[in-house]
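FAQ: What does the model actually see?

It sees only this:
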Amino acid sequence: MIDKARELFRQNNYICFTSDLDWAPEAAIEETLEFYLQNGIHPTIFVTHPSEVVNKYKNKINLGIHPNFISPSSQGNSLEEIVEYCINLVPEAKVFRAHRWYSSNDIYDYLKNRGFLYESNICTNMDVLDPFIQRSGILSFPVFFEDGAYIIHADKIDFRTVENKFAQKGLKVINIHPMHYALNTPYFKYTRQIKDRLTREQWNHMDKRTLADLRYKGAGITKFLQDLVYFANTQKVKMITLDQAYRLCMENN
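And it is asked to produce this:
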């Protein structure tokens, strides 16, 4: 059904930028969105909680839901409650990505019945995979690069060491978390240790000054993303939204 779109992706270098909010404070969300928009990027944002910043920029970004099905969840006590909570946050959403990539047949079937058309809920370690139809009928866009996975596996944070992977043809979905970007995470425990010594209230309400004080001063995810965007712009990579990728698949049926 989507063979023509797959062939189009295979013949060109496409990159799609996305972010999971993961209950980040407003200052971190705004810093991340401003970076994207200043560089002409319209990201897809997977929403976990109410955000005035997201509402401020909602006409310049694409929105999906980011349900947390792992108990205990602040979004609800059942599959249905969690999905409905997220839909109330983003009534127009047609795309989802679950927190920690959690999934089941029941989750997919419920979301399909609630009108969701596509997802980005599988994470690779920089493998280029074609979009495919999941068993529920939902169109799947696997993630090529996630900041958390890269931080865990990389010997050092340096875009130049993986530039050849981003130069490959194909559709590459990128997932950046606002807190990794705002804190310039250099290794996984850096941000984890900050979170563990704060209350949930303190974590969720960090202001710009606090983030600046905690930001790692060496090589980290902030510089990595900046280098990636510079690469994409100078190499004339086709930067599209997940919604555009979905429509390309549908137009080429």
